[in-house]
Design brief:
heterodimer, A: mainly beta, 8-stranded antiparallel barrel, 4-stranded antiparallel β-sheet, about 5% helix, B: 8-stranded antiparallel β-sheet, 5-stranded parallel β-sheet, 17 helices
C-alpha cells in the first residue's frame, strides 16, 4: 500500500507490505526496510529493527495527523493513503486574505472583545478563552475586519473550534 | 481514632489522602462535582457524594454542601488537601462550630498566617528573621515612596492577603512606583477582595527553601528538614527536591529552629510549611507559612521515611508526636516533577482533554502520585495538575538519573503534558550542578536553545505507516464480511472535530 507523509516541510513516499509473521517491508523514499512489528495494545507497537527494539505509542488526530511517542520524544507528522491525498489536493486555497481564528485549547468563552464589522489592527485582542483557571487572550495576527463570530460568551468550545473570521 | 474521614478535594491529592486512610483502616467519603462522576477519587473512596455542578464555587468550594455531606455520611473529620478550602479560616470555623475535626491548624492560626503582614509581625516577635520592609499595610502612595527610599530600591510590593504570585510587583526605581502600585492594588482587589499592600526589600538571586514542620495539640514540634523549590514558572513551583544542595547541617538546624518558633507562636497543629528566601550569602528570611499539606510533601516523605498524611491524621485525632527530633534524618535524595496538562511548546497553555493512553513508570526509587487514568477526560474547570512523579536515589546524581529514566518511559497520550519540559531541565548542566535561583526558568534556561534533535524519528514513521496499513486492512476486512457497523474506537470518536464529546454548551 502506498502512503504519503508530510514531516515539517518534507514530503516522503512510504509503501508498506506485510510479510510472513509480524514482518513488514516498509519503503521510505526508495529505501527498503524490514521491520518486525508487534501490536501489543490497540495503540502501542513494539518495533524490532534488526535487533534494535523500540516501543511506539500511537495517536491518530483529525486531519491525518499522527502523534507518535518514543522514549519520551513526541513526533508529529501527517500520513495518508496516496488516493486520499489525491482527493484532498484541490481545495487547499479559498481562504486567502482571510484569517480563521481557532481556539488553541478547549475551554470557555469568557469575553468577546470585538463585534461583527469592527476594524482591528494587528495584535488586537479578539476574544478571551478560559481553561483551568487561566485566561488566554487571543489576538489578531494582522489587520482586518471582523467578518463572522461563531461563538458567544459562556460557550464551551473544543480545541480547534472556529471562533472568529477576520477578513 | 476517627471512624470515618471525608476528603474535601479531588485529583491526585484526594487519592493521596485516600491511600493514607486505607492504610490506617479508616473508611472514607469522597465528594465530587457532576463532571467528576468517573474521577479516580470518586471511584476509589468507600462512599461518594455528588455535591454540585462542575464550577468549583458550586461544588468543591461550597461549604454548605460539604458540611451537609459530612453530617449525612457520619464523617468525624475532614481532610481539605491543598487548594480549594484548605486555607479558608471561615471553613475551619464552621468545622469547629459543628464539631467536625478539620485535619489542619485552628482557624485562628490560619487567619494569622493568611495575613502576610500579621504573619511577619508575629514571627518577627518570635525571633524569626523576615525580609526587611513594613510590618503593616501601607495605605498612602507617598508613604510607600518614603519607605521604598528608606530601604532602597529595588523593592517588592506585595498584597497583604496575597499568595500564588498574585498582587506582587517588582519596582526597580521611583519612576515605576506609581503604576506598579496601581496594578498591584487592582490585582489584589480582584484576587482577594482586599487591596492593601506592604513593601519588602527585593533581594536578588534568591533561592526558595522551605521547612516542613509537624506539631501536636500539646505544643510539641519537630521539623522534617528542608525542601528546595527554586525551580519555578510564573512564581509557581514546578520541581522540588530534598535535601537542598546549598543547605549545610548548621543552616538546616538554624532554619528548623526558627520554623518551629514560628509554628509555636500560633500554637500550630498538624503539618505546616515555613517558606524562606535564601540569599547568595546564605542568609535566610521568613517568607510565609502555608497552613496545609504541600503539593511537594512527597520528597520529604521519601528522604525521611515519615508519612506526612498519616501523621496529619494522627495529630488531628489528638495523638502526641512520637518521632523525636534527633531521629529525623534525610536519607538519600528525592526530586519531584509536577506533571501538568499544559503545552510546553506553546507557552504552557492548558490542555484539558481525553487521556487516550497512559502507562506510568515504576521500578526502583520511582513513585507516581496520580489522579487520572487512561480513558479519563481532564475537565477544564480545575487545576491542570495530572500527577507528580517522584524519584529517590542514594544521592542527587542517582535521583536525577532515575527521574530521567522515569520521565522518558512515562506515557501519556491525548493531552500535551510538561514531561518534555522536565526532561530538558533534568538534562540542563546548571540544574545538574545545582547552580540556579528562582529566576532560572525565565532566565538562563529559556535563553538556552534546545540543540538536541528528537531521536528515533525514522522509527516513528515506520510504526505509524504499519499502524495505518493494519487499520486499513481491518476496515477492508470488515467491509468484505458485510460488517457494516465498523468498530470505531472511543478515542477517535471523541477527537473528531464537530462531534460533541462530553463538552456541554452552557446557556
Amino acid at each position: 500500500m502506498n502512503y504519503v507523509a508530510i514531516i515539517g516541510e518534507r514530503k516522503v513516499k512510504v509503501t508498506v507490505e506485510a510479510k510472513s509473521g509480524s514482518n513488514y517491508e516498509v519503503t521510505v523514499d526508495g529505501t527498503r526496510n524490514t521491520v518486525n512489528a508487534s501490536r501489543v495494545a490497540d495503540h502501542l507497537w513494539s518495533i524490532l529493527y534488526g535487533n534494535k527494539s523500540v516501543e511506539a505509542d500511537m495517536l491518530q488526530l483529525p486531519g491525518d495527523e499522527f502523534e507518535v511517542l518514543i522514549q519520551g520524544d513526541r513526533h508529529r507528522f501527517s500520513l495518508m493513503n496516496e488516493h486520499q491525498r489525491a482527493m484532498l489536493q484541490p481545495d487547499v486555497k479559498g481562504t486567502a486574505g482571510r484569517a480563521l481564528i481557532l481556539s488553541p485549547m478547549p475551554g470557555k468563552i469568557v469575553k468577546l472583545l470585538v463585534e461583527i464589522g469592527q476594524e482591528v489592527g494587528a495584535n488586537h485582542g479578539l476574544i478571551i478563552v478560559e481553561a483551568m483557571k487561566m485566561e488566554n487572550e487571543i489576538k489578531s495576527a494582522g489587520a482586518g475586519r471582523i467578518a463572522e463570530i461563531f461563538v458567544k460568551e459562556g460557550d464551551v468550545v473544543e480545541s480547534g473550534a472556529k471562533l472568529l473570521l477576520v477578513e | 481514632m476517627f471512624r470515618k474521614i471525608l476528603i474535601a478535594n479531588r485529583g491526585e491529592i484526594a487519592v493521596r489522602v485516600l491511600h493514607a486512610c486505607r492504610e490506617m483502616g479508616i473508611p472514607t467519603v469522597a465528594v465530587f462535582s457532576e463532571i467528576d462522576r468517573a474521577a479516580l477519587h470518586t471511584r476509589y473512596a468507600d462512599e461518594a457524594y455528588c455535591i454540585g455542578p462542575a464550577p468549583a464555587p458550586e461544588s468543591y468550594l461550597n461549604i454548605e454542601r460539604i458540611m451537609e455531606t459530612a453530617r449525612k455520611s457520619g464523617a468525624q473529620a475532614i481532610h481539605p488537601g491543598y487548594g480549594f478550602l484548605a486555607e479558608n479560616p471561615l471553613f475551619a470555623e464552621r468545622c469547629e462550630k459543628e464539631g467536625i475535626k478539620l485535619i489542619g491548624p485552628s482557624a485562628s492560626a490560619m487567619r494569622t498566617m493568611g495575613s502576610k503582614t500579621l504573619a511577619r509581625k508575629t514571627v518577627r516577635s518570635a525571633g524569626v528573621p523576615v525580609v526587611p520592609g513594613t510590618l503593616e499595610p501601607v495605605s498612602k502612595d507617598e508613604e510607600v515612596l518614603r519607605i521604598a527610599r528608606e530601604i532602597g530600591f529595588p523593592v517588592m510590593l506585595k498584597a497583604t492577603a496575597g499568595g500564588g504570585g498574585k498582587g506582587m510587583r517588582l519596582v526597580k526605581d521611583a519612576s515605576e512606583l506609581q503604576s506598579s502600585l496601581r496594578m498591584a492594588r487592582s490585582e489584589a482587589r480582584s484576587a482577594f477582595s482586599d487591596d492593601s499592600v506592604y513593601v519588602e526589600k527585593y533581594i536578588e538571586s534568591t533561592r526558595h527553601v522551605e521547612i516542613q514542620i509537624l506539631g501536636d495539640q500539646f505544643d510539641n514540634y519537630i521539623h522534617l528538614c528542608e525542601r528546595e523549590c527554586s525551580i519555578q514558572r510564573r512564581h509557581q513551583k514546578v520541581i522540588e527536591e530534598s535535601p537542598s544542595v546549598i543547605i549545610t547541617p548548621e543552616i538546616r538546624a538554624a532554619m528548623g529552629k526558627v520554623a518551629i518558633e514560628a509554628a509555636r507562636a500560633v500554637h500550630y497543629e498538624g503539618a505546616g510549611t515555613c517558606e524562606f528566601l535564601v540569599d547568595p550569602d546564605r542568609n535566610f528570611y521568613f517568607l510565609e507559612m502555608n497552613t496545609r499539606l504541600q503539593v511537594e510533601h512527597p520528597v520529604t516523605e521519601m528522604v525521611t521515611g515519615i508519612d506526612i498524611v498519616k501523621e496529619q491524621i494522627r495529630l488531628a485525632a489528638g495523638e502526641k508526636l512520637t518521632v523525636p527530633q534527633e531521629d529525623v534524618k534525610q536519607s538519600g535524595h528525592a526530586i519531584e516533577c509536577r506533571i501538568y496538562a499544559e503545552d510546553p511548546d506553546r507557552d504552557f497553555v492548558p490542555c484539558p482533554g481525553l487521556i487516550t493512553s497512559m502507562r506510568p513508570p515504576s521500578g526502583p526509587g520511582v513513585r507516581e502520585d496520580s489522579g487520572v487514568y487512561e480513558g479519563f477526560e481532564i475537565p477544564i474547570h480545575y487545576d491542570p495538575i495530572i500527577s507528580k512523579l517522584i524519584a529517590w536515589g542514594k544521592d542527587r546524581t542517582e535521583a536525577i538519573a532515575r527521574m530521567k529514566r522515569a520521565l522518558s518511559s512515562y506515557v501519556i497520550m491525548g493531552v500535551k503534558t510538561t514531561i518534555p519540559f522536565h526532561l530538558r531541565v533534568m538534562g540542563n548542566r546548571q540544574f545538574i550542578e545545582g547552580n540556579f535561583d528562582t529566576n532560572f526558568i525565565n532566565g538562563a534556561f529559556s535563553e538556552e536553545k534546545e540543540v538536541r534533535e528528537p531521536a528515533n524519528e525514522e522509527f516513528a514513521l515506520l510504526a505509524a505507516a504499519i499502524h495505518l496499513y493494519e487499520e486499513e486492512r481491518k476496515r477492508a476486512a470488515n467491509h468484505v464480511s458485510g460488517d457494516a457497523a465498523e468498530p470505531v474506537s472511543m478515542w477517535k470518536h471523541s477527537m473528531r472535530p464537530g462531534v460533541p464529546g462530553n463538552w456541554r454548551v452552557r446557556r
